[in-house]
Specification:
592 residues; alpha/beta; 22 helices
């Protein structure tokens, strides 16, 4: 549960303290689980892949040899049958020995957990749940452990907010599809929560930094429609009460930021499915993460939150094959570079729509991404049903279907006739109240005449853009420009101080990108012009607000030759002198 989480994040700082009993129990459980798993792995699992392949090859060659000489021998089928019977008996004997070996450790594990629950040792139980892999504990202990944690411990009031999230997360990792009993147990956990505790549990489930999240649990893993309806009904009822109790005119618990990935978070470099070639491939756009941080607002800052959500067109295939690359980037930005302020979650696209959209785009251009854009709107609507207490801000680009999705989010789907069963994950279920989209910001990476929108290209122009802005949909070419759009919209989403923070961070990010991507040289010019234009406008706004002026805009034409000179100097320079020169050059460049 804590593998990819920041332990100093809100709600996770107060880990239950270790006692002598809880520490001894954690050690015993870990030893017993390792013993059971090592036995259950079996001899075939411990065998190297090469040895296993040789064994299987020998078996099949044995059969093939006797098949070839079949005309020469009578009753060859009896020999083959005896061979398979011997092999089956060997495997059956190994399985029986395995069951005998793991019976005692499993019973011991169940007894340890039962003792701590029956004696109502809440603190010790919480420390155990924080310290061991609960999903592995369930796998080893079986239904007995699941029942004790989800029924006895829950009904006895031994579980806090984080402990409930730990167990729900463990159930999802164990597998919920077509496991009706587990699905009902998960439902009981959600129904046991109310108000802010329910919001905290939802965010904890979402903030694991892996493919398992609340959206996947409700709409994919839970196959029972009744269980899903019970969970969604409870979430809606509690969110309605919570919004009514929130202070201020907005009546919301916070703001969740939803964003596309390619050409929105980072540049695709014009690779598959992307358009933007003005910025290096896989590099995060300057100021993007800082703007996400500014917009991530939570009324109760002491509670755990996961308000950054990436809405991707990449489909979910098997386990985390497609998503793992993105989550590695997220973990690097959070843990290593410390640039992303929170662990995000990700909502994948539809496999059929994504593949068809890519193939269609080869012939039709951006028109081929229509179904992908419509599906993004459906995914957004279904996600919003899980968090009715929040408002939303959406970021995308105009290279695929994000602009179309943003228009549908801002206007709703009813007037555009999106009512086919494939368009609704809930098989025709319509929302009673549309989610509250505060703003949608679209990164312009294509000319306006090539983009996919609800209106035809001939019907679009300055008046059309003005109409989109009135509905809360803004266009930008850099994230300084996006912050300016939000500030000038008078929506209250961003202040002048926050605008300055985003702009200053964008300048720092851009300077560092130029320094570490010196191979680009003259290719920086298009993006430099876009960023400088928005920088000058932000400078005027900040000056009018009476704030400290932004740092000077970096001169790329001067910065790149300095880096080339440094590289040439480094050829014959001792390592200690090289470090000193690098620090001096970097400081000089940043000051400039």
């Amino acid at each position: 549960f804590f593998k990819h989480r920041a332990v100093d994040s809100p709600g996770l700082k107060d880990k239950p303290k270790r006692t002598q009993r809880s520490g001894r129990m954690v050690s015993q459980l870990q030893t017993l689980m390792d013993e059971v798993l090592s036995v259950e792995a079996g001899s075939l699992a411990r065998m190297s892949s090469g040895a296993f392949d040789m064994l299987m090859l020998f078996c099949f060659m044995f059969i093939q040899v006797f098949t070839v000489v079949n005309p020469l021998l009578r009753n060859i089928h009896i020999v083959i049958g005896i061979w398979w019977a011997i092999l089956f008996i060997i495997l059956l004997r190994g399985e029986y020995k395995r069951m005998c070996k793991v019976r005692v450790p499993k019973e011991t594990i169940v007894g340890l957990v039962r003792s701590i629950i029956s004696e109502h040792e809440k603190h010790n139980l919480c420390h155990v749940l924080w310290s061991v892999s609960v999903a592995t504990l369930m796998e080893v202990g079986g239904p007995a452990i699941e029942g004790m944690l989800a029924q006895e411990a829950l009904q006895s009031g031994l579980l806090g907010t984080v402990e409930k999230a730990i167990i729900v997360d463990a159930f999802q990792k164990r597998g919920l599809s077509f496991k009706t009993r587990r699905q009902r147990l998960v439902r009981d956990f959600f129904l046991s929560c109310s108000g802010l505790e329910l919001t905290a549990v939802k965010n904890l489930v979402d903030g694991g930094g892996d493919v398992h999240n609340l959206f996947k649990m409700v709409y994919t893993d839970i196959s029972s429609r009744k269980v899903r309806a019970d969970i969604k009904g409870h979430l809606k009822a509690e969110a309605t009460k919570l919004r009514s109790q929130c202070p201020g005119p907005h009546k919301r618990e916070g703001i969740k930021v939803l964003s596309d990935i390619d050409d929105t978070l980072f540049s695709s470099g014009g690779h598959i499915g992307g358009c933007d070639k003005t910025f290096p491939h896989k590099k995060v756009y300057p100021g993007c993460l800082e703007l996400f941080e500014v917009l991530d607002q939570t009324l109760h800052a002491e509670l755990p939150s996961c308000n950054l959500v990436f809405l991707s067109a990449r489909p979910h295939l098997y386990k985390s094959v497609m998503e793992e690359g993105s989550y590695r980037l997220f973990r690097s930005l959070v843990l290593d570079e410390r640039r992303m302020h929170t662990f995000p979650t990700m909502l994948p696209g539809d496999r059929n729509y994504s593949v068809r959209g890519f193939l269609a785009s080869l012939c039709l251009g951006t028109k081929g991404w229509r179904k992908v854009g419509e599906h993004k709107y459906v995914t957004f609507s279904n996600y919003a049903e899980l968090y009715p207490e929040y408002d939303f801000v959406f970021f995308g680009d105009n290279g695929q279907g994000d602009l179309l999705a943003a228009q549908l989010m801002a206007s709703g789907s009813e007037q555009f006739g999106l009512t086919s069963p494939r368009e609704l994950l809930e098989k025709g279920e319509q929302q009673e109240e549309p989610p509250n989209l505060l703003a949608a910001l679209i990164h312009e990476v294509l000319p306006e005449e090539k983009v996919l929108a609800l209106e035809k290209s001939g019907d679009r122009g300055p008046a059309w853009k003005k109409q989109q802005e009135e509905s809360g949909l803004f266009f930008h070419r850099s994230y300084i420009g996006a912050a300016i759009q939000l500030y000038e919209s008078k929506s209250g989403l961003i202040s002048a101080e926050q605008l300055r923070y985003v702009a200053a961070s964008a300048i720092t990010d851009f300077t560092e990108d130029v320094m570490y991507q010196s191979a680009w040289q003259d290719r920086w010019r298009p993006y430099e012009l876009k960023l400088r234009r928005d920088y000058d406008e932000a400078q005027m706004i900040i000056k009018h607000a009476g704030l400290e002026q932004l740092p000077a805009f970096p001169n790329v034409s001067e910065l790149v030759p300095r880096l080339a000179e440094l590289a040439e100097t480094a050829v014959n320079m001792p390592s200690d002198d090289l470090v000193a020169v690098e620090e001096e050059q970097e400081e000089s460049a940043l000051v400039s």
